[in-house]
Design a protein that fits this description.
- Helix content is 32%, strand content 29%.
- By secondary structure, it is an alpha+beta fold.
- The protein has 2 domains: 125 residues, Ribosomal Protein L22, Chain A (Alpha-Beta Complex), CATH 3.90.470; 106 residues, Ribosomal Protein L22, Chain A, CATH 3.90.470.20.
- The strands form 4 sheets. It has a 4-stranded mixed beta sheet with strand order 1-4-8-7, covered by helices on one side.
- The longest helix has 22 residues.
- The chain is globular and about 55 Å long.
- It starts with a strand and ends with a strand.
- 34% of the residues are buried.
């Protein structure tokens, strides 16, 4: 899946998404990629789109970069959902589940998910199905083996350890984002346990997707999604119960 790109325009100080197709059929999901902007004036305008609780959470971030990325992700999400639902961005209300997953108030058939890393945010919206996404910047770490023990199942870890060292970073982040996307689609938080979730094989998700059984025999469909160079991304969907 190739995500569309979201960009912003500022006409007479009124922020809006540049023209973008937001048509979503029932039982389908779509993803969009947004690159963070370094524009104080536009950032301040995005901050005004947030609800009081979102502003409070933004101000709780001590690191400016993390605060700015949170503001931009939440505001662009509001603009995108507003376009999909034909509602003002500021009028959208959110509710939060047991594990903190947000849903739209009074819009039971619409679902969304967001993730961000590095210079990008990945946003997804679905109609009539649950959806989860993740994006991670691939990075070399001194304790990649330790991270692998926290994320990979025994079968995956065995396959991963047999890869050439030059391939392990990309393969690890591909598996990590895929698992995060599945967990987020299920809305069960990390309580599922990433090491207990086995994706079947270490390697690219086939073009038609891959079915993954997670939790209480719940089947998710993991879809391949294109990511910028140096990043891994994943999208997962499963039917409403």
């Amino acid at each position: 899946m190739m995500p569309d790109h979201l960009t912003l325009s500022s006409v007479e100080d009124k922020l809006a998404l540049c023209p973008v197709d937001v048509q979503i059929q029932n039982g389908q999901g779509r993803a969009w990629l947004f690159r963070f902007i370094d524009d104080v004036r536009m950032h301040d305008g995005l901050f005004t789109l947030l609800s009081d609780d979102e502003r409070a959470r933004a101000m709780a971030f001590r690191v400016a970069t993390a605060r700015n990325q949170y503001v931009q992700t939440r505001a662009v999400l509001r603009l995108l959902l507003g376009r999909v639902l034909n509602l003002p961005a500021k009028a959208l209300g959110f509710e939060y589940g047991t594990h903190g997953k947000p849903t739209l108030r009074n819009e039971a058939c619409w679902h969304f998910n967001v993730a961000h890393s590095g210079d990008y945010a990945l946003l997804a919206v679905a109609r009539g199905i649950h959806i989860g996404v993740d994006i991670e910047r691939q990075r070399v770490t001194d304790d990649l083996d330790g991270l692998a023990r926290m994320v990979l199942s025994p079968t995956e870890a065995h396959q991963w350890a047999r890869l050439p060292h030059t391939d392990r970073v990309a393969a690890f982040f591909s598996l990590w984002t895929a698992k995060e996307a599945v967990v987020k689609a299920l809305g069960c938080g990390l309580g599922l346990g990433l090491t207990t979730l086995d994706l079947g094989e270490v390697g690219p998700v086939p073009e038609g997707g891959r079915c993954v059984v997670a939790g209480e025999a719940v089947t998710c469909k993991l879809m391949p999604i294109s990511a910028p160079a140096g990043y891994s991304a994943a999208l997962a969907m499963h039917a409403l119960r």
